[in-house]
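Hello K.,

You asked for the raw outputs rather than the summary table, so here they are, unedited. I folded two proteins back to back in the same session to keep the settings identical. This is the first:
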Amino acid sequence: MRIVILGGGFAGLSALKANNDAIMIDNKDYFVLTHRLVDVVKTGNPDLAIIPYKKVFRATVRNIDFKNKRVITDRGEISYDKLIIALGYSQRLLPNTEKLETVEDALRIREKMLKARRVVILGGGLLGVELASLAREMNKETYLIEGQSKLLGFMSKDSSEYAKMKLEDMGVNILLNTKVDSIDGNVVKTNKDTIKADLIISSIGFKGPSLISDLKLSNVNDRMIVDEYLKSIDYDEVYGAGDCATNNKKFIPMSAQVAVQAGTRAMLNALGQEEKFSYKQIAIIAKIGEEYFGDFMGKFVKGRLAELAMRFGLYRAIRLVN
């Protein structure tokens, strides 16, 4: 039985790890450690976020003939018996902003940040918080705009309050409960104020890849809808795993940890070892300055324990490739 995996991110690699006879297709020849892209912005060293693949068919997916079970790429067609779609996420780009999705994005942001005096960051999630910290480390006047009442809205109250305290101590201007009305050139207009910026970075608008909609798969925000076994609700031989997939009854978080678990489960289910998908979020760790902190096993941690949790996650990601 030929199983084809589309995408070589956390979900795709974990699926391949569960069945090394599968064929993994990706448009790059390297894996991107997305949680290290901020480090690339900081240092200008892309190698911090890149790990070369050991096994990949490098091609760009153009279409899928679901009826005849063929993946159509820019390098030809590949037939499959079972297909796992693990294409990761994309980011909806707002006008006059920069996004941080790829190594190329990181290098471009670095170049612009070096020249900037005032930086505005949209979104107070993990990425926004770490970018705001970096901007202040680079001595930029920094504004962090968040529409909700707290930073890191999906994390514990302790983590949220700690992030706010640390960033304010660094001199970050944090604007909570603030909605962006418009971005006109380099001017950000909110429901509270108007800010003129040299660089505007968006850390919001995460969704599935547009290819999901192009393929006419049932989806929510370009995330294909799968059942509790991670099987597409449209095609029996097709599975979805990672950030590009969700369940219409139970939301699946966009998370590297969840993606790894989903990739493994999708492959095992495709092989006939069917079980319902369930996941565990063991740790969510952030970094401000040189300090790590976050939620580990449901408890707030900081310092050495948080750093160890982060490094263990990095080690597991590297093991996926190697």
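The second followed immediately with the same parameters:
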Amino acid sequence: MNTISYILKERSARRIASFLCINFLFMFVEFAYGFWTNSLGLISDAVHMMFDCGALALGLYGAYMSSWRPNKVYSYGYGRYGVLCGFTNSIFLILVAVCIVIEAIERVLDPPKVESENLFLVSFAGFLVNVVGIIVFRVLHLHGPHVGAVFLHILADTLGSVSVMVSSVAMRYDGMYLADPVCSIMIGILIFVSVLPLVKETSSILLQQTPADLLPHLPLVEKKIRGIHGVAAIHQLHTWKLASNTVIGTAHLLVESDGHEQMILHEVTKTLKTYGVAQCTIQVRKSVAEEGPSSDVSYRFRNDRQWLRTLDEGAVNGCFC
């Protein structure tokens, strides 16, 4: 199934694609009128709308790729493509915000004359277009970093339209041409502040940070696992997010010689899933090793402490036994 087929099949994708077309067409209207009236606020809004279109396109393709099944090359699937789209969009937003503020500061020092006739009507029309986008995303109840990035784009663009409307009234009736760059600075600051949480969320996923909602519970999780009958020790418990709503966990277990491995694995997995860990990979080693192939990790070391020390060294060197 290609991208077009996916959009035609999925109701939410069709609505997002429809809003993308409306947004794309109105972007040219704002660009043309912004250059004609010399309004930095309207040009900034048009540039931001252009990035909205890119964010919508990336978001659509991200949702499409996220639906692909895992394969031999991408064994975890394509869920992180949406995270990558969200991170990319957030970086673009920061660049847009910085460029707008720099240009606006130059205009504050030397405010140009702006033709404010009909500027309010154009900015109001842009406001309505963005309100439609907000309604589309709220009605569909879409989730994910790439969706969050697109929503932030549209929300910041809506605030930008409001800012241009205010500045157009100030210039039209009071001749305050300084209002245009001042409102542009406000747009840039709003964009920058609104995107910081998204940068933090997506970068933490890409860097495989322990999920913030799980981190305070890890000591209790380890305590519960150690309390399972037959578990002697738990080591190298790692949790991270594969995507925005999928948590992966791995751990090394040292179990008593008479411990029932399958029962222990079941209880440990059950405990981890209680705290939102969807996929678990557990390595188990008996406390007293029996004779066996030297290549097997279960027989690699006779001494439990030596085994734990080796795990620590492996973690420091970036590899895990």
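Strands lie at 231-243, 246-255, 277-286.

Happy to rerun anything if the numbers look odd on your end.

Regards,
P.
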